[in-house]
Amino acid sequence: MSDINQLRNRIDEITIEMIKMLKMRTDISKEIGEIKKNIGKGVTDETREDNLRSKIITLCNELKFDESIATKFLNFLLNESIKVQSDNKQTHLSIFHKAKAMERDGKKIIHMEVGEPDFSPPQIVKKALEEVFDKGFLKYGNAKGLPSFREALAKYSSEKFGVDVSQDNIMVSPGARFSIYTAISTLLNPGDELIVIEPSWPAYKECALNSGIKVRTITTTLEGKWEPTIEQIQKVINNNTKMIILNYPNNPTGKILPEKLQDEIVRLAIKNNLYILSDEIYSQYAYKKWKSILCYNYDKSIITQSFSKSHAMTGFRIGYAISRPEIIEKLSKLEALCLTNVSEPIQYIAMRALEADISDNTNTVQTRLNVLVEKAKEMNLDFVAPDGAMYLFARINQEGFSGVQFANNLLEKGLAVAPGEGFGEFKNFIRLSACQDEKILMEGMNILGNMLRDKQ
Ligand SMILES: O=C(O)C(=O)C[C@]1(C(=O)O)C=C[C@@H](O)C=C1
Predict the structure, then answer these.
(1) Residues 79-92: what's their mean pLDDT?
(2) Do 180 and 323 belong together in one domain?
(3) From the CB of 80, is ligand 1 less than 6 Å away?
(4) 235 shares its domain with 384
(5) One domain, residues 151 and 206
(6) Are residues 43 and 100 in the same domain?
(7) Structural domains of the chain, count
(8) PANTHER family of this UniProt entry (predicted)?
(9) What is the mean pLDDT of residues 134-143?
(10) N or C: which end of the chain has fewer CB within 10 A?
(11) Does any ligand 1 atom lie closer than 6 A to the CB of residue 151?
(12) What's the pLDDT band for 1 if we cut at 50, 70, 90?
C-alpha cells in the first residue's frame, strides 16, 4: 500500500474514534443535564469550563500543539453540551405566549412580562400607512435599505448623538434582532468567543449558540449595582475572543454604566481588537447621563437600534445597524441572502415616523417607571432603581423561590411577569415592565403583593 493510502486509513480511523467519543461525550452530557434540571442548576457552568480550558491549554503546551485550535474545538464541544442540555428554558417570551393564549380563552391578563409599550405609534404612522400605496414604495429594493430611508436615519442619528453618520454606515433590518444576528454570525466564525454581560436579553446568547460561537459570560450582581469589573472582562479574553456585547440602558436591569467604567470597557475592547456590538434600543429611555458607543468613533463598533420601543412600533419589525461601510457590507450580504430586502412599505412608514416628536413616550415611560419603583420600595422588593429602559429587575428573598414557578402561578391570578431565569442565572429574580398605565401597573403590583404574602 502506498504511504498516502496508509495515512488515509489512519486518518479515517482517528475520525471514526473521535465520532464515537463525541457520541459518548454527548450521552454523558445529557445525563449531567438531567441531573442539573432535577437539582435546579443552570446549564452553563463557567467554573467547570474554565477548569477544562486550563487543562487543555496545559496539554497543548506539553504536546506543542496550537492552543487556539484546541480551544476552538473545545468551544464546539461545550456548545454541543449546552444545546443538548438547554431544552425548555422559560423566558419572558414563553410567559408572553402563554398569557396571549389565556387571553384568547377570555381571561384578563395584565402584561408586565414584555417590553411592549401600550401606547400607539406616532399619528404620522397612520397617515403614512394610508399614503404608502400611492407613493409607490411597494417593490424589491436594496438589501441595505431604501436610500432615502438610510439617508434620513443617518441624519437622525447624527443629530441625536452628535456624531457624523452617513447612509453608507446604515443597514435597515427587520427589528434590531436581525442586525444583532447578522453581526454575530457574519463577523465571527464558529469556535470564536464573544462576551456577554449578564443579566442580559437572552437573544445574544441564542444567536451566538446558533452560529457556533462560544459565549463567555460575565455575571454582575445586584450588590455590585449590575456593574461588571474590568478584571472580570480581562480574565475571559484570549486569542479566540472577537466581540463584546453591550446593552445600556440595560434590559432587564435598566442600568446605565458610569461613563468612566464604560470608557474603560471600550478601551479594553479596542486594546484587544474586539468588535463592540452595542444594542442601544432603549436609548430613548435614558433617565441618567448616557453615552452612545457611536461617540467613541471606534471602527469595529456596531450599534443596533429599533423603532419597537422608541416609537412603539413593535409589530412593524423595523430596526437598523450603524457601523463602518465595510462591516455594513458584510452584514447586508446575509440580509440579502435571507430576506432580499426589508419590506419597502414598512421602511417608508418608519421613515415618516422619524419626523414625529417622541418626547412624550420618554416622559410616559419615565413616569410609569417611577411609579413602579415607588410601589416596589413600599413592598420591600430588593432591587437597584433603574437608570433607564422600561424594566425593574427585582430579587425575591424567599427560601427556595423559583421565578418560573412564581410567574406561572401569577398568570393564574391574571398577572404576567418575566422570570429572572430567562436573563441568566437569576432564578430568584423577576422582571417587571413599565409598559402599562399607572392604574394597571398598580393593579398588577397588588396581585404580586398578594402572591408574595401568600407564599410567606
Ligand atoms: O460539567 C458540566 O456541568 C457539564 O454539563 C459538562 C460541560 C462540558 O461539556 O464539558 C458542559 C457545560 C458546562 O458549561 C460545563 C461543562
Answers:
(1) 86
(2) yes
(3) no
(4) no
(5) yes
(6) no
(7) 3
(8) ASPARTATE AMINOTRANSFERASE
(9) 95
(10) C
(11) no
(12) low
- Kindly report the pTM of this predicted structure: 0.94
With a 6 A CB cut-off, is 313 part of the ligand 1 pocket? no
Q: Which of 353, 374, 399 is where one domain is finished?
A: 353
We report the CATH number of the domain holding residue 13 as 1.20.59.10
143 and 285 share one domain: yes
179-212 CB burial, b ≥16 within 10 A, e <16:
bbbbbbbbbbeebbbbbbbbbbbbbbbbbbbebb
Domain with 111, as residue range(s), is 92-119+359-455
Best of 45, 80, 425 to mutate for ligand 1, by most ligand atoms within 8 A of CB?
Answer: 45
What's the CA-to-centroid distance between 37 and ligand 1, angstroms?
13
| 240 pocket-lining for ligand 1 (C-beta < 6 Å) | no
94 band by pLDDT with thresholds 50, 70 and 90: confident
List, in sequence order, every beta strand (DSSP E) within 8-117.
110-112
- Give the pLDDT confidence score for residue 21 in this predicted structure: 98
One-letter amino acid for residue 191 of the chain: G
**Residues 62, 187: one domain?**
no
With vertex at residue 308, the alpha carbon angle to CA 302 and CA 313, rounded to the nearest 5 degrees, is 140
pLDDT surpassing 70 at residue 344: yes
Query: By C-alpha distance, which of 143, 140, 174 is closest to 335?
Result: 143
What torsion do the CA atoms of 363, 367, 370, 375 make, to the nearest 10 degrees?
-160
CATH number at residue 445: 3.90.1150.10
CA 233 to centroid of ligand 1, rounded, Å: 21
Nearest ligand 1 atom to alpha carbon 44:
14
pLDDT score of 87: 76
Whole-number Å distance, alpha carbon 209 to ligand 1 midpoint, is 15
Domain of 313, CATH number, reads 3.40.640.10
* Residues 6+ positions from 395 with CB-CB distance below 8 Å: 222, 381, 382, 383, 420, 428, 429
Whether 193 lines ligand 1, by a CB cut-off of 6 Å, is: no
CB of 215 closer than 6 angstroms to any ligand 1 atom: no
b/e burial code for range 71-101 (CB count within 10 A of at least 16 → b): bbebbebbbbbbeebeeeebbbebbbebbee
Adjacency order of strands within the sheet including 301-306? 170-173, 319-322, 301-306, 275-279, 241-246, 193-198, 214-219
32 C-alpha to center of ligand 1: Å?
8
Q: Is 306 in the pocket of ligand 1 (CB under 6 A)?
A: no
The answer to whether the CB of 251 is under 6 A from ligand 1 is no
For residue 334 the three cell numbers come to 446575509
Strand 391-395 versus strand 429-433 pairing type: antiparallel
CA of 33 to the centre of ligand 1 (A): 8
